[in-house]
Every structure is written in C-alpha cells, then in structure tokens.
What does this fold into?
Amino acid sequence: MKNRLLKALARDGRVRIYICDTTQLVQEAKDKHDLWPTASATLGRVLSVAAMMGANLKSTKEKLGITINGGGPIGTIMADAYADGGVRGFVAEPHVHYQYNDTNKLAVGVAVGKQGYLEVKKGMSLKDDFNGQVALQTGEIGDDFAYYFALSEQSPSVVSVGVLVETDNNIISSGGLLIQMMPDASEEDIVATESIVGELKPMSELLQEGKSLEDILHSLYDDVKILAETEPRFKCQCSEGKMRAAISTLANDDIQAMIEEDKGCDIHCQFCNNSYHFDEKALGIIIEEKNNACGK
It folds into this structure.
C-alpha cells in the first residue's frame, strides 16, 4: 500500500486533523540507513510528524527542519519536510536497539534520552522565518511534539505516532495522528477530544489491524470533513550539482590538495546515504570555473 496523508476538519471546523500512513516511507528509510528496530521506530516517528507538519506549509519554496538531541545513544535525529510531501531524515547512530523490560516494546525514549532539545525551523530557502525550541519531556517523540506545539506555537495538540517492526527488522506498520485545536475551539471541543484520544489505540496498531485512514477519522468524530490527500514519500534534495557547488566554496588550494593527494573526493549525503564521486578531472574543472568567474 502507498503512503497516504489526509487533512481534515471536525466539530464544525474547530478541530484540525492530520493523519498518515507512512509504512512504506519508513521501510525505505530503514533500507537506506540500515536501521535497527529501535532506530527505525525513532526515525519513523519523527518522519511521520515531519510529514504532517510539512502538509501545513503554504509554499513549495518553504522548508521545515526538525532536529532532536536528547543525549541518548541514538545521537542527533534530523528530518526535513516540504510542501509537496517529500520528507527525508537520518539518525546519527542507526544501529540502536533497546526494549522496555516490562512490555518488550521498543524503547524509543531510552534511545533518544530527554536531556536535550527539540528544535523546529521553518523558512524560505536560506532564510529561516521561524525557529522554535523546547526541552525534551520524555524522548518518546509524540509527547515531545505535543509539548512543542503547546509551548512554541500556542496550539493545544494531540500527537500519536507509532512504528511496528517485524522480527526480521522490516516495517509492519507506521503512522501518525495530529489533532489541533483551532483558535475558536471551545472547552467542550477540548474535553471531547481528550475523551476520544484516551480510548485510542496506537496508530501503528490500528493500521496493522487493516483500518483505513478514513475508518480511523470517522471513529474519532461524527462530522469529519476531509479536505485534502497527499502522498508522503522519502525524497532527498541532494544532487551532483549541489555537491559540486559545495566543493566550489572551498579554497583552490584545498581542492588542488584533493587532486594531488587523494586523486579525487567522495561526498556522502547523511539524509539519504547517496555518495557522489568527483575525480581529478572534475575537480580541475571546478577550479577552472572558479578562476573564470573571478576573472583570473
């Protein structure tokens, strides 16, 4: 099944909902980064939130960036999202696997830690129009983003994200749910939503049971109105041209050293694990182009 994301309203437009199935997206991330189960669950949760937040971007030129570091063994977690549904992300240490002894569930909070921060940046290309940062609360991702929305964006929110991983490390199901109170939401809307969410199973379990996103939405509210559907996908923005541009920012002496000492260079993209090779000839052309641009 393909990745799906729905945007909807409920309670006469006073409640906004994003819901997504990111199973295939997280499987691709797992394959690209050779993630172990807890690392898959961690990055998968972040990618689901990124996809839902990205769906609220207004322009294809906008970019949303998420950075999390809680001091745990997984290290820094980063994800980017774009208005067209593209998301990408990585964890510093992909070979992390912890389980809680009492439940045998994947211990995302242990892997992430909570002695650190969650940061969100939204902006137009090189200019960041918004930057919000909060202290991590649990490291379980969902609770931390709910805290972020309440504190940094003044938007009372419910965030449910989950990933189920098979014994062979493949992804069984992955998804997310984001419920936000609109500015005109009443106390009754908040109480009703809290009651609904209190009875809600984890998103990954609902998807594993074969529930469609529409089924889940209509089980939450009686008057759900679906506004839009998009297809989240793992999409990296790296390219040979961008890597060439990065090399050209180096001093000519440094590029010449790569030619003479290393016989070329390789640049690795952390987000998608792609590598780009530039041989001696290619590096020489970069120096020549730089010199021509400077009139040398």
